[in-house]
Amino acid sequence: MLKPSKPSGSPSTPSEITDNIVVPPSPAPSVVGKSADTYGFTPEEVAALEAASAQPDPPAAAVAPAIAQVQQAVPGLGGVSIEALTMFANIIGSAIAGSMQKMGPKRYKKAFTAEYDPKTWAQPDQTKALKLNRPCFQNGCWMNPNSMNNAEIRALNSITHSGRYLNRLVEVSVRQNGSEDEVHLTYNSKTPDQRIMLKGEARNLAELLQKIVETQTEERAELDAIAEYQRVERMKVAQFRAQRSAEKVEQLSA
User: Fold this and answer.
1) Is residue 20 within 8 Å of 77, Cβ to Cβ?
2) Residue-wise over 107-139: b if at least 16 C-beta within 10 A, else e?
């Protein structure tokens, strides 16, 4: 770094100019990409220093043309020794090389295909991701579990039977395909009015599936209550018939 020069008009001797040169500690700040006023250099000085620092540790014979350029471009540096300018150019060159090495491309660790674990916004941790217990389709399109969160997968696994839900806007069909079941969700969403009506019932897929599961839970509870009532009625009919049969046997025996 150069100290501020004397005001114009004041004489400068080579010894004074040499005394004004201060060798900064290593590593020195880089002048690449900086303006001329950042470190007190003029554009001609910056160009000359960059030309002089082309090699990390150049010999005196190699830097002689660069030193001559500096002495010609900057008035008053004719008395500065070549050794001082060479030392300063080496410091600037080392700083530029260090900054270029830090700004190089980032190298990523190589991994085998078996070590690669795909992560999505819905499944940030594959070790905690749930799995679909059967194929599911949405308007004829296969539902990829990697793009679904655990709440949606849990709701799809909880669907037990077919029916129409959400004011009959969504149809759920549980179909037998060979040895496994498939769940098909069908709803109309072609026109803006249809999408608005569906949005009024559920804001997203997770809420839609959760409402279907809750409705199916209530339906199963009603079916269980009906089945229990029918069982009790069948028991009553069986007891009544058994009682009538016993009475007829007593009458015949009398």
Assistant:
1) no
2) eeeeeeeeeeeeeeebbeeeeebbebeeebeee
Tell me the backbone φ, ψ of residue 62, rounded to 5 degrees. Answer: -75, -30
Alpha carbons 6 and 235: distance in angstroms, whole number: 117
| All residues at 6 or more sequence positions from 35 whose CB lies less than 8 Å from its CB, including other chains | none
pLDDT at 235: 94
Instruction: Write the DSSP symbol of residue 9.
Output: T
What whole-number distance in Å separates Cα of residue 53 and Cα of residue 66? Answer: 9
Hey, how many other C-beta atoms are within 10 angstroms of the C-beta on 202?
A: 19
What CA–CA distance (Å, rounded) separates 247 from 83? Answer: 133
Half-sphere exposure of 172 (CA within 13 A, CB side): 25
* Global pTM value: 0.49
Residue 217: what residue type? T
8 A C-beta contact, residue 70 and residue 45: yes
Digit-coded pLDDT (tens) for 167-211: 999 999 999 988 889 999 999 999 999 999 999 999 999 999 999
The answer to whether the beta carbons of residues 172 and 212 sit under 8 Å apart is yes
Residue 13: partners with Cβ closer than 8 Å, 6 or more residues away: 79
Local structure of residue 194 (DSSP, 8 states)? H
- Name beta bridge partners: 21: 2
Give SS3 for 230.
Answer: helix
Per-position b or e across 149-173, b if 16+ CB within 10 A of its CB:
bebbbbbbbebeeebebbeebbebe
